[in-house]
Design brief:
This protein has five helices and no strands. The protein is mainly α. α3 packs parallel to α5. It is elongated.
Amino acid sequence: MHDDYGYEYDQTREIPAASRSTRRVDARKLWSGGMATAVVAALVAFVGLLIARGIFGVPVLAPTDAGLVGDATTVGLCSLAALAALVGTGLMHLLLLSTPRPDTFFTAIVGLATLAVALQPFTTGSELPVKIATMLVYLATGVAIILSLNSVTGNALR
């Protein structure tokens, strides 16, 4: 059989029962996983800053005299990472309720947002090592959020 655009398709293929039924989201599991993801994201950002500052000596988001742990910008970055994970959890919840293949759309949306944030340091006047280290911290944090929330999703579906 052909559709309106001339593409052939098999009409005899049966749709699996799981696809026909409505998806039910266990919000408690999803949001508790989202809270855990927020902690992971904050820690990934913090460890990334420790690696950049302590191992490579690159003063990412803090002057060198602020030390290994840094200053208020360290707390700010870790807080923003946690907030991004919670926003991601809200996005995932919305996608689970409204779209087919929510994990695919979630990965695409958060992946592109992560890339945009990771490229931002290259618009500043910082030195190249600072730009690269900042980009890597942002990328690692975004990937941690994507992987964690995608793994939580399977357990949050009933």
